[in-house]
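INSTRUCTION: Work out how this chain folds

Fields: amino acid sequence; protein backbone structure tokens

Chain under study, with its fold:
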Amino acid sequence: MSRIQQTFSELKNHNKKALVGYIVSGDPDISSTLNAMHLMVEGGVHVIELGIAFSDPMAEGFSIQRGHERALLSKISLEDTLSLVRTFREKDNETPVVLMGYMNTFEALGSKNFSSIAKENGVDGILIVDMSLEESKEFTEETTKQGIDVIRLVAPTTSKSRIKKICSEATGYIYYISLKGITGANSINVKEVGSKVSSLQKMTTLPVVIGFGIKDGKTASKVKDLSDGIVVGSVLVDIMGGKKDEIEKELSIKIKDLTQALSMR
């Protein structure tokens, strides 16, 4: 059983929801990212998504775009991130780590080479924002050989027939985008999200997590019962972009707020 499967299985057995935390690798530098990863786990984050810095992160809002820019200034590379995960594994061999980014970055290493190195260094999954089903056969085959999950996105506008195809190709979990637009958007329509997620869950046995627009305990509490977990990104990336000597404190406060909301009955 993979780390992702194990994590969601244990959470389900204890009737708990997953907290998936996203930060950008190398933002503002490698050591800060590593410290944040361990701090997130200590605070109650169950799955870490590491954004891979890209010069044109088209699906991202202002906060995460700035995170990508800061990481690029630190000259972070995909290889550096793979080494970062290996270092993280020296102290944590249980928390799933998913790499989230854009196809050009991963293609530069080649699907076979990337998959092999990613497995060796302890990566559990990939979420490639602009990798369509039609263009992902080779990549999916190579990652599957290495036991690396391919996380897939489902949007509010995705047709049912398309969702069925996406679910048939996905492993690990399904990431449901709760809002139309870019990351960091506001105003989640809870009723609409609930209906969409309920329909999605009938098409897959994989866990479903909700992302976009979840920034604090208040917004988390509104959607926590609709799926198997939530994804929080923009607000954490904003914290990583703050004063270095305040990152640890602010990150701890924010994660505590989120974990408390998820544990409330």
User: Anything to note?
Assistant: The chain has a mean pLDDT of 92. The CA atoms of residues 239 and 246 lie 8 Å apart. The chain has one domain: 3-148+211-263.
